[in-house]
Amino acid sequence: MHASQKSLRFVLISISLLIAGFLFITPGFAENGAEAPGHLRCEYLTNPTGIDVPQPRFQWVLANSRRGEMQTAYQVLVASTPEKLERDRGDVWDSGKVASGDSAQVVYHGKPLVSGHTYYWKVRAWDTQGNSGAYSQPSRFGMGLLERADWKGQWIGGDGLLRKEFGLPGKVVRARAYVTALGYYELHINGKKIGDKVLDPAWTVYPKRVLYSTYDVTSALQDGPNAVGVMLGGGWATQGAGGPPEYKAPALLFQMNIEMADGKTVSVSSDTSWKTAAGPVVSDSVYDGDVYDARLEKPDWDRPGFNDAAWAPARQEKGTAGALSAEMMPPIRVTDTLVPRSMTNPEPGVYIYDFGQNFAGWARLRVRGPRGAKVRLRFSELIYSNGMINRQNLRSAKARDIYILKGSGLEKYEPHFTYHGFRYVELTGYPGTPSLDTLRGRVVNSAVEATGSFVASKEILNQIQHVIRWGQLSNLHSIPTDCDQRDERQGWMGDAQVTAEEAMMNFDMAAFYTNFVRDIRDAQKPDGEIPDTVPYKYGRYPADPAWGTAYPLICWYMWQQYGDKRILQENYDGLKKYEEFLRTRAKDNVLRYSYYGDWIAIKHTPGALVSDSYFYYDTRILSDVAKVLGKTGDAEAYAKLAGEIKDAFNKAFFNAETGEYANGTQTAQAMPLFLDLVPQKERGGVMGKLYNNIVYEHNTHVTTGFIGVKYLLPVLTRDGHSDLAYELATQTTYPSWGYMISKGATTLWELWQDKIGPSMNSHDHIMLGSIGSWFYRALGGINLGADGEGYRHILVEPRLVEDLHWASASIETVRGKVSCSWKHRTGAISMEVTIPANSDARIVVPEEEDMTTVTVREGDHVVWENGKFVPGDPGITAATARASAIEFSAGSGYYHFLLTGE
Ligand code: BGC
To answer: Which numbered atom of ligand 1 lies nearest the CA of 600?
Structure first.
C-alpha cells in the first residue's frame, strides 16, 4: 500500500470513527441533558387557531423519566414565522434562559400580539445538572380578532340559509374566517362544511359575551369565484327555557380576512348584501329536535355559480352588544359512533333500537325510499316491558327528529341544531324494513380529552367508573349541564361544583372551566349575587349558597389541579363581591337562606346547615385565594371572619350533649367534619355518630343528597374509616351507586330511587358522580401534596381496604403523568408509582394493620429494613414510619416498591 493510500485510509477511518462517535455521542448527550419538552400547550390548547389573550400562557411536559429530575431553567422562543423559529430566532419573544422550575402557566412577555396573526413557539429546558436539552418540536397559536373594529360587518339573519359570493383575483396564501352566532351556525365554503365543530358557538351569557370560532380556511378558497354559505339554527338563543326566549331569531356575525399572493388583502363580512332563503331545516329546537325536509334542500347553495336571484337580501339583526370573545375550549363535536346492540319490532311499523349505553347526541339515519316519505326518530332513556320506549321523564321535551325524504337513492341524515339524551331510538315511518345498519349512535359533547384512568379488582367500582365517565361526558355541552334529555339541560351550579374535581381527574377540563368561570362572572350582578344556573334560565338570583359556591370552588380547583393563578387574579374582585354579598344575607355570622340544600336526600338535612357550611367554606377559600395572590391583609381578614363563622356555626347547629349537628343526618355530620368546623375535642364523638348512623341506623347505606355525599367518603377515609367508605362505594342494595347498576344504569341517575314515571327522574345526571374523585384519591392514592398546586408536590397514598386486591390510577397532569398501581396479597404489597419530572412526592406504602417486621424494596434495592431507611436508591431521599405505612420522599421517576412483612 502506498503511503498516500495509507493516509487516505487513515483519514477515512478517522472520519467514520468521528461519525460513529457522533452518532454514539448524540444519544449519550440526551442521556445527560434534559430531553426536549413535549405536549406543548398554549392557554391549555394544542395549536389553537384563535385566542384573544394578550399574554397567553405556555405549558409543556418534560418527558424525562429519570429519577429526581427537575427543570432548573427554560427558554421560550416565539417567532413570527416558522423559518425564524427554525433558526432559533424568537423575534417576538425570546425569554432568554429563565432560572425556574415552572413548566406550566408560563406567561408570555414579548411584543404585543397582533390581531389575526399566527405565532410559532418552542421551548427548551435545563435539567437538574444544568445541562440544556434540545428544543421541542415547534407549536403555534393564532390570535383572534382583538378589537371590535376588526369586525367590518354586521349581525344578519334570514330564513335558515345565508350565502355570499365573491371573487378572488389570484392565489390565496392565508385566510381566516371568524364566525359567531346567536344560536348555532354551520359554515360552508365552496361546497364543503368547514371544521368539525357542531352546535357552535358555545352557549354563553349572550348579552354579555358571545364566542367566535376562528377557522383556517386557506385551502377552502380558490382563485376565481367563491361562495360562503351559512346555515343558522336557533339553539339556546331562541329557545324558551325556564322563561321566554332571549332572542326572536338567530343571527350571524362573520368576518373573513384573506391574504393574497400579491400581498393584497380581501375582507368578506356579513352584511345585507348576503342572500337568504329557507333551507331544509323546517324547525329546530334543542329540546324538541330538528325537522328536516330534504325536498327543500338547495343543491349547491354553498358553491359559486348558484342562482340566488330568487333569494331575499339578508336582514340586519340587532345581535348583541356583548363582547366578542374567542372560543378557547374544546368544541362540541361528534366524539364517537355507536353501533346499535339490537333492533326489535314490538308493533307493526315500530322499530326500537337499543344502543346499550345512555349518552348525549343523536342518531344518523340511512334510508332509501319515495320522495315525501316521513321518517320519525324518537329518543328515550327508558323502555317499557312491552318493548316500547318510555318517555315519561322527558317532561315537555319532544326529543324527536323528523326526516322527509327527497327520494333520490341512498339518503343520509343527521340533525343540525339539536341533541338528545338517550339509549333507545324508536323508528317509525321507515319505507321498507330497516336493519341494524339503518341507525348509528353519534356521541356528541364538548370534546375534552380523557386524562385519567381508574381500574380496580372489584368489578362494581369499574362499572361505577364507567357510568361516571359517560354521565360526565353527556353533561358537557359547552357548559356543565345537569342532564341531557329533558326540557332542562342547564348549567345548574350545584351539580357543577360537586362534580368538578371528578371531572378534572377524568378529563382535561382546564379550558372548559376557564370558560365556564367567565360565564359565572358574566352572570354576576353588581351587588355580587350569582344565579343558580349559568347562563341564567332556571332557579333564582341569588343562588342557593350550595349552588353559588361553584364560583369560588371551581376557581380554587383550577388552582389546585392546574396551578392556575390567573383565574384567581381575574376573579378576585368577583369572588370578594360574592362573599360580601353573602355577608349581607348572614345574621350574626350565620347564613341560613336555602332553597334546595342537600338536594335529593333520603334523610333531610336542614338547608341552613348546608348554606352556612358553604358560607364558611367560601370565606376560607377567599382567604386562601388572597394568600396565593399575596393580599395579606385580605387573607388575614377573611381568615378571621372564617373563625367567627365557625364559632357561630357551632353555636347555631352543634349539640354538645348528643355530639350531633342539627338533626344528626349523615350530611349534617359529614360537612362540618370535612370542613374542620368541628372543635378538635368533639371530632371523635361527631365521627362516632356518623359511623353509627351509617352502620347501625342504615345498615351501611348512604342517606345523603348530592351535596353531603361529596364529603362523606373522603371524610371517612381521612378519619381512618376507609373500609366503611369502601363498603358504601361497593354497596349494591338501595340506596347506592351499585343499586343503580344492578338496575341496568349505564349513566348515573338523578335520584337514588328507581323511578321511571313522569316525575323528576333523569337517568343521566352527573351530580352523584362526585364519588369519582374519591376513587382516584383514596383507592388510586393520587393526591396533591401540601401547597402542591398543579401537582408540584404529590402525595401518593392508596388505602388498603377489605377485599380490594389491586387498584390502578393515573392522571395526565399539567406536569406529566402521575400514576399509582398497587397489589395486595397476604404479607406483601407491591406498588408501582410514576412521578413526573419537575415534581416531588411523598409516597406512602401501606402495610397490613398487624404487620410488625417490615422490609421495603424498590427495584433491586432495599430501602427500608429493621425500622430504618436504607439510603442509596436513586431518587429516594428519606423514609419514615407512619401508622401502618412507610412514607418515602422521592423525586420524579418510575418506582416499584415491594413491602413484605409478618
Ligand atoms: C336539576 C338539578 C338541580 C336542581 C336544583 C333540578 O331540576 O336537575 O340537578 O341542581 O334542579 O335543585
So the answer is: 12
Q: Note if 297 is an active site residue.
A: no
**Closest-lying ligand 1 atom to the alpha carbon of residue 532:** 5
Is the C-beta atom of 512 inside 6 A of ligand 1? no
Nearest CA to ligand 1 atom 3: 492
Grid cell digits, residue 410: 341512498
Task: Using alpha carbons, list the distances in angstroms from residue 764 to 382, 471, 474, 478, 573.
Answer: 11, 6, 8, 17, 35
- pLDDT digits 0-9 by tens, 377-412: 999 999 999 999 999 999 999 999 999 999 999 999
CA torsion, ordered 240, 244, 249, 250, to nearest 10 deg: -50
The CA-based angle 357-358-363, given to 5 degrees, is 90
* Per-residue pLDDT reduced to its tens digit, 199-212: 999 999 999 999 99
Portion of the chain with pLDDT greater than 70, in percent: 96
CA of 686 to the centre of ligand 1 (A): 30
Select from 312, 308, 310, 281 the least CA-distant residue to 227.
308
Of all protein residues, the one whose alpha carbon is nearest to atom 5 of ligand 1 is 596
Nearest alpha carbon, ligand 1 atom 2: 482
Is 488 among the residues known to form the active site?
yes
- What is the C-alpha separation between 343 and 440, in angstroms, rounded? 12
Q: Is 297 exposed, middle or buried (0-12, 13-18, 19+ CB in 10 A)?
A: middle
Of 750, 797, 812, 847, the active-site residue reads 750
Strand 209-216 with 323-326, pairing: parallel
Q: Residue 517 gets which letter from DSSP? A: H
* Cα-to-centroid distance, 378 and ligand 1 (Å): 25
Residues 59-74 have pLDDT tens digits of 999 986 789 999 999 9
